[in-house]
Amino acid sequence: MSEEMKGNRSWKVVLAILVCNILFMSSSYTMIIPFLPLYLSSELGAAPEHVNLWSGVVFSASFVVSAVMAPIWGRMADTRGKRLMAMRASFLLAVSYFLGGIVQTPEELVGMRMFQGFASGLWPMDLAIMTLYAPPKKLGLCLGIMQGVMTAGGVVGPLFGGVLATAFGMRMSFFLAAGALFLNFLMFVFLIKEPPASVQAMEKQKEAPKAQPKIWHMPLLRDMLLCGTLVSMIIMILQPVLTTYIAALAGDIPNLVFVAGLVFSLGGIAGAITAPLWGKLGQRNGFFRVMALAMVCAGVGLFVQGIPDTLVPFAIMQFTCGMFLSGIHPAINAVLAENSSTEIKGRIFGYLFSAQQVGSMAGPILGGVVATCIGMHAVFYVAGSIMVLLSLAVWHKYVRA
Fold this sequence. Notes:
Elements: H1 3-32, H2 36-42, H3 51-80, H4 82-102, H5 106-119, H6 122-133, H7 139-168, H8 170-190, H9 196-207, H10 219-237, H11 239-250, H12 256-285, H13 287-305, H14 311-325, H15 328-338, H16 345-373, H17 376-399
Helix pairs in contact: 1-6, 1-7, 1-8, 2-3, 3-4, 3-5, 3-16, 4-5, 4-6, 4-8, 6-16, 7-8, 7-12, 7-15, 10-15, 10-16, 10-17, 11-12, 12-13, 12-14, 13-14, 13-15, 13-17, 16-17
């Protein structure tokens, strides 16, 4: 077998394994997170008047710790191996989910979520590994597929989690998630090797250590990290109001919870379908151009989404926005991959993950403040306006220039 054929088979095998890895990771997370308020009240004895407060603390605890730890894990990935850091994250995340299934108090659940934040970092390592295996001409497709699978896991997770919780109780959901993450750990142990380029870079560092470039001194990389923060913030800004808004539009109809859940998931379904297509489009037409296009279309879509006063047009716009939002993150990932050396890819994607965590923390807070002070419609107008302005900034600086 020729070296070219071996190489082609190698990156395809790695992509297939990482797709399974990402699906397990994403669905395990979303299988549990939406049901934390119920878990707090029914299993951990949280008082009804304190459930919302505990939910907020539990939800944010992981983000705070992971935002701090992600750059540290990224630096270790560059010096000790990205596969090793992926193994670390998979194993410790499995432990964290197991602990989630045996906690007895809200305080213990907060501690578990903080440990989960400490353990995090699997997604940026998946990205770093794939960017080192993927042929340059297939980078966009690979990152698009990975983003699509990440989104798909977010759609099927709550559905599966609801069925599992109903049939066996919520604690079983945690144990199943622990098993899925441990399976990810075994995949990295037996099926994934450290990318050859990463091995060579680490050997060079050992032979001739040199000062690493400072990430924040690279304008393009700094700008992409800022984009990652703002995009995550815009996506999460809708979270405090979206379900309530859908229920208000639906009115008094049968199966309201099911209808609200279905409409809520339409964006994720659209994103899972279109993310690989955006990746291919970016590879062919330039990732900056596609990033700006996806941003402006998503921004307009978010703005328009605040106008309907009935459920059907809102549901159509929810699906449409999902189509455009799914094109942004693969483009950011590809730009970072193309403009960073092997020696710093772990740090780059670690910083990106940290930036996204910061945006995910800020989004719900901003959305709650806007909804309280101005109204729920205004949340969509604010989110859409920020996204359009961001697209114009990207176009002006990196496409038009």
